[in-house]
Specification:
By secondary structure, this protein is of the alpha/beta class. It has a single domain, classed as Peptidyl-tRNA hydrolase (Rossmann fold, 3-Layer(aba) Sandwich), CATH 3.40.50. The chain is 34% helix and 21% strand. The protein is built from six helices and seven strands, in the order βαβββαββαβααα. It has a seven-stranded mixed beta sheet, sandwiched between helices. A hairpin with a 3-residue loop joins strand 2 and strand 3. Helix 1 crosses helix 5 and helix 5 packs antiparallel against helix 6. The chain starts with a strand and ends with a helix.
């Protein structure tokens, strides 16, 4: 087993109709990481598209994966990829949208429940553990009485879109920091104002 190998999963829904949705911010972060590594996504038998590379020469090897399934059934592809690459769940980073933190905010954590996030719920069920790293990308709460499910399936607003590139860049930085320096060091950098 490669000690410096990480599986980074970006959650979202497949197809161009969902590409700009808040729910797909995890996949947007993976696109940023793949660009940095000059890596291309290719089809994988685990029902996912995968890109591999290093963020810097001699750095950790990152397997970037976007499940081809809908968000609520992400667990099967994630479990299959962990088995295929012989990666323990402790070296899994799941990048996902988070309603409970403000837009343009990032939080890193390990373990815990799914917090009502169906993608996380399915990954926990499929892998048998919640002990993996989560990069929670804040999308904020829906305005007024808008349903949360409806809110995350909409594109970012016209006021959010100009900030989105820097949020995706910061999130990609956070993934690279976790892989290179460990969770605690990454948390100290990401969570400081």
């Amino acid at each position: 087993m490669d000690e410096n190998l990480w599986l980074v999963v970006g959650l979202g829904n497949p197809g161009p109709g969902y590409a700009g949705n808040r729910h797909n911010v995890g996949q947007m972060v993976l696109a940023e990481l793949a660009d940095r590594m000059s890596a291309n996504f290719k089809s994988h038998k685990a029902n996912a598209t995968v890109a591999e590379g290093r963020s810097f020469p001699g750095g950790p090897r990152l397997i970037l994966a976007k499940p081809n399934t809908f968000m609520n059934v992400s667990g099967g592809p994630v479990a299959a990829l962990l088995r295929f690459y012989s990666i323990p769940p402790s070296r899994l980073i799941v990048v996902h949208d988070e309603l409970d933190i403000p837009f343009d905010t990032l939080k890193l954590k390990v373990g815990g429940g799914h917090g009502g996030h169906n993608g996380l719920r399915d990954i926990i069920a499929a892998t048998g553990t919640g002990d993996f790293i989560r990069l929670r990308v804040g999308v904020g709460r829906p305005p007024g009485r808008q349903d949360a499910a409806d809110f995350v399936l909409r594109d970012f607003s016209s006021t959010e879109r100009p900030v989105l590139p820097s949020l995706l860049s910061d999130a990609a930085d956070a993934v690279e920091l976790v892989a290179a320096e460990g969770l605690v060091a990454a948390q100290q950098k990401v969570h400081s104002p």
